[in-house]
Write a structure and sequence with these properties.
The protein is mostly helical and 74 residues long. The chain has 4 helices and no strands. Helix 1 runs parallel beside helix 4 and helix 2 crosses helix 3.
């Protein structure tokens, strides 16, 4: 889960012009301004606890993919 999240954070930070190694708060702020998602939900998705089982890991991967598409949507 952490590898998925880290890769997503890196791609999002790059797409949003956040520069190298942005602080978590900066990434959350940029993403929440670009999407209709609230900052708490973005933070939980990008920095939350490890999923408890395989099904939750698959949902996390799907949710991260959806978030990236939202950010990249024109």
């Amino acid at each position: 889960a952490e590898l998925l999240r880290a890769a997503t954070r890196e791609r999002l930070a790059s797409a949003l012009g956040a520069g190298p190694s942005p602080a978590p708060a900066a990434v959350v702020s940029l993403v929440s301004r670009r999407t209709p998602r609230d900052p708490a939900g973005v933070a939980a998705l990008l920095y939350g606890a490890a999923p408890p089982d395989d099904a939750a890991l698959v949902r996390l991967a799907d949710d991260l993919d959806r978030l990236e598409r939202e950010v990249r949507r024109p």
